[in-house]
């Protein structure tokens, strides 16, 4: 049995460790805190034998720092903002934006509402106003079919921004990549479900040995 209450991996050098080690630390955190096996119904209505609660990691202090550093390193050099559909993407875009300031590469964060604001400007998008055609990268925690990030991309484009890519923390390999390709969006993920499941099994083996 894996100790699911573990708060963090052994190393605490989240701010200074190299990105290769940091990625492994983040994978460990996902497997210890976010990944569960059982019988689950996803937001899409699909049944699944596993569930990934990304917020257990994106709202974790070391997790957010690692996510910010890793995703910042993946952004195209011409990125002018990061954005995502509320609620899952909110802590991710925030983490990336904060880390970008420390890295002397300040990148604003935008939050895309699921429904237009019911008062004031009635806007779908919260955050700084950017120049027309500004390059915005859409971020997501866990991609299944890809619908959430695609909705965010469509609303950003409708607001006059340029959106060419999506980056997620985890790809469940259930059609998201294909959907983005069909929409002309580049896609990459930090991990796939195969990465998580392999490491989860390794943690279980080491814990039981």
UniProtKB/TrEMBL annotation:
How does this polypeptide assemble, per the annotation?
Homodimer.
Q: Which GO terms describe its biological process?
A: 'de novo' UMP biosynthetic process; pyrimidine nucleobase biosynthetic process
Reactions performed catalytically: orotidine 5'-phosphate + diphosphate = orotate + 5-phospho-alpha-D-ribose 1-diphosphate
**Recorded GO MF terms:** magnesium ion binding; orotate phosphoribosyltransferase activity
In Swiss-Prot or TrEMBL terms, this protein is called Orotate phosphoribosyltransferase
Q: Which family does it belong to?
A: Belongs to the purine/pyrimidine phosphoribosyltransferase family. PyrE subfamily.
Q: What does this protein do?
A: Catalyzes the transfer of a ribosyl phosphate group from 5-phosphoribose 1-diphosphate to orotate, leading to the formation of orotidine monophosphate (OMP).
Give, as in the UniProt entry, the pathway in which the protein acts. Pyrimidine metabolism; UMP biosynthesis via de novo pathway; UMP from orotate: step 1/2
What is the required cofactor set for this protein? Mg(2+)
Q: Which HAMAP family match?
A: PyrE
Question: Which key words tag this protein in UniProt?
Answer: Glycosyltransferase, Magnesium, Pyrimidine biosynthesis, Transferase
Q: What class of enzyme is it?
A: transferase
**UniProt cross-references to SUPFAM superfamilies, sorted A to Z:** PRTase-like
């Amino acid at each position: 049995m894996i100790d699911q209450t573990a708060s963090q991996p052994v190393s605490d050098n989240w701010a200074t460790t190299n990105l290769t080690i940091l990625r492994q630390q983040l994978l460990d955190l996902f497997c210890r805190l976010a990944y569960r096996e059982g019988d689950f119904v996803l937001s899409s209505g699909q049944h699944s034998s596993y569930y990934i609660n990304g917020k257990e990691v994106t709202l974790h202090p070391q997790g957010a720092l690692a996510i910010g550093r890793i995703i910042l390193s993946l952004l195209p050099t011409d990125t002018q903002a990061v954005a995502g559909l509320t609620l899952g993407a909110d802590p991710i875009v925030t983490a990336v934006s904060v880390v970008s300031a420390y890295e002397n590469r300040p990148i604003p964060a935008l939050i895309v509402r699921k429904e237009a604001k019911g008062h004031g400007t009635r806007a779908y998008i919260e955050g700084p106003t950017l120049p027309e055609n500004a390059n915005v990268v859409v971020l997501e925690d866990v991609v299944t079919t890809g619908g959430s990030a695609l909705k965010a991309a469509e609303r950003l484009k409708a607001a006059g921004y340029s959106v060419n890519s999506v980056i997620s923390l985890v790809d469940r390999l259930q059609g998201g990549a294909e959907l983005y390709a069909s929409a002309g969006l580049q896609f990459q993920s930090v991990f796939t479900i195969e990465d998580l499941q392999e490491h989860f099994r390794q943690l279980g083996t080491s814990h039981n040995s």
